[in-house]
Amino acid sequence: QKPLLAQSYVDALTAARAAYDSLLAEVQAAADAVIVKIDAIAEGGAAALTEANNAYNALTPGAKTLVTNYNVLEAANAQVVIDKIDALGTIIPDSKAAIEAAEASYAALTENEKTLVTNYETLTAARAEYNSLVADVNNAIVEINKLTYGGNAIKMTYTSAGAYSQIDAINGPGAKDYSITFAINIESIQDSENAY
I need a surface site. Which of 107, 111, 172, 190 has the fewest CB within 10 A? Predict the structure, then answer.
């Protein structure tokens, strides 16, 4: 009786199976290595988190499905953003860089990781407060430029006085020119008032 398959076909099938098993083992080994890196995040801090993210992103789609503790990596990425938001504190003109850094970190998260950021509303509120602060300072600059020697000049001086440091922080070193001009105007106005 003749065999159902020629030996060459049997050999090819056997070789294909061996190659598949070898490839599967390699994929599992790659996934296992990432699992170890994720487990090390708790002790290794930011450097370990970066290493784990890089290793996970380098995996093939199939290998990613074998990373059994991926939820730990997601939580760690979300926690970085949570910490940045918590660190914002009181919003001042100098908060711009910190707000933008938190926003950029949040934007870089996956959709699922974003759902883990429990204080995202604090970030949106901080952005709104900062934008309002910038608007207030810009309005103050407009008022400074309107200063004259008559009418409501003294009143404008006092309503705008609190903006000195904010103007300088938002608009940069050039804003000092506003402060200098403003101070001269105040002295001139007061001299004019005293002359009466």
Answer: 111
Closest CA to 72 of 96, 103, 48, 91: 48
CA angle at 77 for the pair 72 and 82, rounded to the nearest 5°: 115
Q: What is the dihedral of CA 125, 131, 135, 140, to 10 degrees?
A: 80
- Residue found by looking up tokens 């001139």 in the block: 188
Contact between residue 138 and residue 167 where contact means Cβ atoms under 8 Å apart: no
Q: How far is CA 116 from CA 112, 122, 130, 145, 162, in A?
A: 7, 14, 24, 47, 39
* pLDDT per residue as tens, the chain (196 positions): 556 668 787 788 888 888 887 888 999 999 999 999 999 999 999 999 999 999 999 999 999 999 999 999 999 999 999 999 999 999 988 899 999 999 999 999 999 999 999 999 999 999 999 999 888 877 776 666 665 544 544 333 333 444 444 444 444 444 444 444 444 444 444 444 444 4
CA-based nearest residue to 101, from 111, 116, 86 = 86
Rg (CA), the chain: 32
